[in-house]
Every structure is written in structure tokens, then in C-alpha cells.
Write a structure and sequence with these properties.
The protein is 44% helix and 11% strand. It is globular and about 55 Å long. By secondary structure, the chain is an alpha+beta fold. The strands form three sheets. A five-stranded antiparallel β-sheet has the order 1-2-3-5-4. The protein has a two-stranded antiparallel sheet with strand order 6-9. The longest helix has 20 residues. The chain binds adenosine-5'-diphosphate, 2-acetamido-2-deoxy-1-O-phosphono-alpha-D-glucopyranose and magnesium ion. The site of magnesium ion has 3 residues, from loops.
Length: 364
């Protein structure tokens, strides 16, 4: 890279001097680095080179995150004993007073305080972790429910809109830009067969039966940080916080919290919904939101994991057909593997659907 991490770091008003910087985390979108500070008593930082192919309007994106983090900080600071630097993301202003910079190569960067002593899990292996994850997302939605200042900017238009996602899928199949369609007809059929039933959440929205709220929209479990005792700490990755249905957050979190394997597990016999983890997450989530959700929202919670797992599987396969332009991949064919793994999870959720509905009924 022509610009060094240290130069980027120096463009922000940090407290402390740069010691080292290393790639960090397993996000699929940005390039994330942890910056270690020479002084041991000072906070480390997270530097992110923002993906502006995915997020086309960085100033509006950052404006959203400024609004959201200010509001969350206000809420958290009212809780006695709270730890403001670890329970919400803290953006660091640049020396020019903005919350991002553009480097001499035209790349956008932002910086946060590194949340110390956190645990981040790609796979959830205990009841308590799932429960705490549910609590974190429930509380996050509750805290944002009275954010002032009008609707947030839609950082990715139609992000979870399954009709639009299907339109793009059909278009890419037709274009077949890198000649991969021939080899995945079986997977394509699985998506086509389920396309109609996936539109139910959108229909409920159009009919006015479920409200638009402020949602996170990317509640993969590794975006929920737990503390050193594995208690809910902080929800991160705020790029897609915008108007949405609660089902989007609930469904995406279950997709990861209740799958005992990785997102691209190759042994499909291991990929299935873990009903216990589903129950634990639901309990945590409903302990924070049970009083605010309406009856229709509750009734369709159990369907949400099927929709979100299907949607994200569809996006992985679309990206595979397109030649892997969106999600970061670490080996050839990873997007196809992710799509297959997620499809298998959809099927398992279908098999266990009645049990999932019963669990939600009992909890509400
Ligand atoms: P992406 O959109 O690429 O997933 P994220 O914002 O989720 O980017 O960041 C990637 C990873 O970096 C996270 O999963 C988490 O492990 C880590 N991370 C991000 N922000 C922080 C922070 N403020 N403190 C500690 N770790 C962080
Ligand atoms: C991306 O940014 P990250 O890695 O937390 C993606 C999500 C997908 C997820 C699949 C902005 O999440 O929508 O569900 O990968 N984020 C964006 O793992 O597209
Ligand atoms: Mg992330």
C-alpha cells in the first residue's frame, strides 16, 4: 500500500502514539486493522478502510453512524455503572473535524476506539452466549426506538428487500458473466421453489401489519461483542443501521447463533438449526423487546430465520454467479460453499419450523 497505516492514523485526533497495526477480525466488507498504542495505559484503535463499492455515499453513511453513536452514548451514560467506551462505538474525529478521511489514493478511512477485553464469536457454543446475544440486539433496538432527527439515510437501498434481491439474481443468471450458471442448476432450483413464500414479511409491511423501526440489519453474531465474562457488551458494525423490520435482525442473528458450524462449513451433515440455541437467543431478545413488539411481529419471528438465511444464501450465490465482486473470499468457490451451507440451514429450519413457532408462542 502506498499510504502507511501510521500516516492514516496520524490524520485522526488520537490520544497516544502509533506502535503497530495488524489486520483484524473476519468481516466480509471492509479492511479492518487494530492499531496498538505505545503507551500501555491508553486505548488501542480500530482503523477501517471503508468499502466504497458497497457503500456508495460515505459522508451519509458516516452521518448515520454519528447520529446513532451519539444517541446510544446518551442512553448508556444514563445507566449507573456503565462503561461508555466499551458499551458503544466511539468514532474518533479527524484533524479536519470529520468522522472520516480520504487518503491520497482516494480511499476512505474511519477510526474507532478499540473495545478492550471483548469476545467476538463466529460460532456460538453455549446457552448463555446465545441468550446474551439476544439481549444485546433487543436492547440495541429498544435504545434506538426514540432516536430524534428523522429517518436514517438508506446506506444500501433495498438491502433486505427479497423481491429486489430475486430480481438481481434472475438478471445475473441471464447475464451469466463468468459462465458459472451451468454448474449450479440444482442450487438455483432450490431458490426458485421457495421464492414466493419469502415475500410474506414484505406483504405484512405493505399491509401495515408490521411497523418500520430502526434496525441494525447485519446482526451476524460476530457483530455482537460480549465482555470478558461473556455478557452482552456492545453491538458493532453500524453501517446498515437504517429503517427495517425487526424480523431482519432476529432472523440474521439466528442464522449465525443457532448454526453450530461455520458459515461455509463443507460437511453439510453438520449444518442444522440448533433448537436450544434458537430458544436461548429468543429468550434474551424477548426479555428486552417482548413488551414493544405487536402480535403480528411476534407471530412471524419464527419465520424470520428462514427468510434471512435464504436471502443471504441468495446473495452469496448471486455473487458467485457474478464472479465474486461483493463478499471477500479466501478461496475459490467460497461464495458457492457459503450458499450451499446456508441453503442446507434453510432446509433444517423448514424441518424444525413448528418447534420454532411453538417456542416463540410459549415465550410470548
Ligand atoms: P465488516 O463490515 O467488514 O464486518 P466490522 O465493522 O464488523 O466490519 O469490523 C470487522 C471486525 O473488526 C469485527 O467483527 C470485530 O471483530 C472487529 N471490530 C470492529 N470494530 C471494533 C471495535 N471498535 N473494537 C474492537 N473490535 C472491533
Ligand atoms: C456481511 O460486514 P459483515 O461481514 O458483518 C454483509 C451481511 C451478510 C454477511 C454474511 C454490508 O456482513 O449483509 O449477512 O456479510 N454486510 C453487508 O456473512 O453486505
Ligand atoms: Mg462485521
Amino acid at each position: 500500500m502506498g499510504v502507511t497505516l501510521e500516516e492514516i492514523f496520524d490524520s485522526f485526533k488520537a490520544d497516544g502514539s502509533y506502535l503497530s497495526g495488524e489486520p483484524y477480525g473476519s468481516g466480509h466488507i471492509h479492511d479492518t486493522f487494530r492499531v496498538e498504542i505505545a503507551e500501555k495505559d491508553k486505548d488501542d484503535y480500530i482503523l477501517q478502510k471503508l468499502n466504497n463499492k458497497v457503500f456508495k455515499n460515505i459522508p451519509e453513511l458516516q452521518n448515520n453512524i454519528e447520529r446513532v453513536t451519539i444517541h446510544l452514548k446518551n442512553k448508556v451514560s444514563q445507566i449507573p455503572g456503565s462503561d461508555i467506551k466499551r458499551e458503544c462505538l466511539s468514532l474518533i474525529p479527524s484533524k479536519e473535524g470529520k468522522s472520516w478521511i480520504v487518503d491520497k489514493e482516494g480511499n476512505f478511512w474511519r477510526m474507532y476506539i478499540f473495545i478492550s477485553r471483548h469476545h467476538s464469536y463466529n460460532i456460538v457454543d453455549s446457552a448463555d452466549k446465545a441468550f446474551e446475544g439476544g439481549k444485546a440486539i433487543g436492547r440495541f433496538q429498544a435504545m434506538l426506538s426514540d432516536m430524534p432527527g428523522g429517518p436514517l439515510f438508506e446506506t444500501i437501498p433495498w438491502f433486505h428487500n427479497i423481491e429486489k434481491r430475486l430480481d438481481t439474481f434472475y438478471l445475473k443468471i441471464k447475464e451469466n458473466p463468468v459462465s458459472r450458471v451451468q454448474s449450479i442448476t440444482e442450487e438455483i432450483d432450490h431458490f426458485l421453489k421457495r421464492a414466493d413464500e419469502m415475500k410474506i414479511i414484505l406483504s405484512l409491511g405493505h399491509e401495515g401489519k408490521i411497523p418500520i423501526r430502526i434496525t441494525h440489519n447485519d446482526t451476524k453474531f460476530n457483530n455482537i461483542l460480549l465482555d470478558e465474562n461473556d455478557k452482552a457488551l456492545c453491538v458493532i458494525d453500524l453501517d446498515t443501521v437504517m429503517p427495517g423490520y425487526v424480523h431482519y435482525d432476529f432472523g440474521d442473528a439466528i442464522r449465525t447463533a443457532a448454526n453450530p458450524t461455520s458459515e461455509d462449513e463443507t460437511d453439510l451433515s453438520k449444518v442444522k438449526v440448533d433448537i436450544n440455541r434458537f430458544r436461548d437467543y429468543s429468550e434474551g431478545y424477548l426479555s428486552e423487546t417482548g413488551n414493544t413488539l405487536n402480535d403480528t411481529e411476534k407471530e412471524y419471528l419464527a419465520f424470520a430465520p428462514r427468510l434471512l438465511t435464504y436471502t443471504i444464501a441468495l446473495r452469496f450465490l448471486t455473487d458467485y454467479i457474478d464472479g465474486d465482486n461483493y463478499f471477500k473470499i479466501h478461496y475459490k468457490g467460497q461464495n458457492l460453499q457459503r450458499a450451499r451451507t446456508q441453503l442446507k440451514l434453510v432446509m433444517s429450519m423448514e424441518e424444525h419450523y413448528e418447534e420454532m413457532r411453538e417456542i416463540i408462542r410459549r415465550l410470548t
